[in-house]
Amino acid sequence: MSTTMRSEGYSLWLVPSFSSALYTTIQSLINTIPSTYPDTNTPTFNPHITLTAGTIHLDHDQDPAEWLAHTTFSAAQQNLKVTINELHVGEIFFQKLIMLCEKTDELLGLAKECRKLATGEGEEDVESSDLPQSDVQAVLGQVKADIWEARRPNPDSTTAKGAEIWLVPTFTTIEDWTPVATKELPDVEWTWATWGRIDH
């Protein structure tokens, strides 16, 4: 019987290239949009797609960077195209206000590959937010206006090239959700779809 101790579950995130205008523009929105909803305690996240949540359990003597470095993904998933679409208002805490991505075969395939790496059960986020959906919907127009204002001076933010997969210790407090290991996927292409029309 093995007595090797394992860590609590890590998550795998797909993150746009840091150097892209798309990343910096979305990050600025993540930092500022919560002020639209006063009297809420909203954590700050990096822009990301969650590929698997809390399912990666490593041995305590295992190096996370080495584990991720030796993890391979199929060529189709390495060359995937990600399209960011409309805003979505959800019920649970981590989906209260998000931007949906098109569920292409390539993106779903990458998520499936990541879930096959699972070495334990993940925990679904079932925590309810103290911010009612109706309150989010009430100022959705203002949020969309904020998005347009952020994108106007950054026309290059509509597309980006490159991504990283992050191994994130999501069993810790949210403030500590920073990657313990990263893996580059330089050929991933991002498109931030346009909502409506901007008058110049």
UniProtKB/TrEMBL annotation:
Which BP terms in the Gene Ontology apply to this protein?
cyclic nucleotide metabolic process
Gene Ontology terms for molecular function: 2',3'-cyclic-nucleotide 3'-phosphodiesterase activity
Q: Which InterPro entries match?
A: Cyclic-nucl_3Pdiesterase (IPR012386), Cyclic_Pdiesterase (IPR009097)
Taxonomically, which superkingdom?
Eukaryota
Query: Matching PANTHER family, A to Z?
Result: 2',3'-CYCLIC-NUCLEOTIDE 3'-PHOSPHODIESTERASE (PTHR28141:SF1)
Please identify the protein, giving its name as recorded: 2',3'-cyclic-nucleotide 3'-phosphodiesterase
UniProt organism field = Saxophila tyrrhenica
